[in-house]
Design brief:
The chain has 134 residues and is of the alpha+beta class. The chain has a single domain, classed as Ribosomal protein S6/Translation elongation factor EF1B (Alpha-Beta Plaits, 2-Layer Sandwich). It has 2 helices and 5 strands; from the N terminus they run E-H-E-E-H-E-E. A 5-stranded antiparallel sheet has the order 4-1-3-2-5. Strand 2 and strand 3 form a beta hairpin. Helix 1 packs antiparallel against helix 2. The chain is elongated. 17% of the residues are buried.
């Protein structure tokens, strides 16, 4: 049986512009419950605010942009996307896998706490600088 790896993903989802703070919080809370159920570790979570859409979606020209970067097993993605499909306030979403594998350090748990091993594997790599050309 093949070993299932933790993978790093990013999710961008759009919330309809008429949604008030409570509506946006409802979507975030529902996603948080899925994250806790599947033991997803959050790397970063940002609210990009209300922006103009590149094209009209469901007769909306603006939407609230939300960004989440996280680490999880692949089975969590199907449940997360199912939940976003069912929420009326979410008008569009896209999940992208960022890298093939993940070293289990450098993340924030779904509860928002930083675990003991707080060194980021991708940040710990030395930065190669181009040598001076003479």
């Amino acid at each position: 049986m093949a070993e299932v790896k933790m993978r790093r993903y990013e999710l961008i989802y759009l919330i309809q512009p008429e949604a008030d703070e409570e509506g946006r919080e409802r979507v975030a809370t529902r996603l948080q419950s899925v994250f806790e159920e599947f033991k997803v570790q959050l790397v970063t979570q940002e609210e990009w605010g209300k922006r103009k859409l590149a094209y009209e979606i469901n007769k909306y020209t603006k939407a609230y942009y939300m960004y989440v970067e996280f680490v999880s097993l692949p089975n969590a993605i199907t449940e997360m996307e199912r939940v976003l499909r069912l929420l009326d306030d979410c008008i569009r979403y896209q999940t992208i896998r960022l890298e093939d594998g993940f070293n289990r350090i450098g993340f924030i748990s779904a509860s928002g706490k930083i675990p003991a091993a707080s060194a980021c594997a991708t940040c710990a790599l030395p930065i190669s600088r181009p040598s001076a050309v003479t």
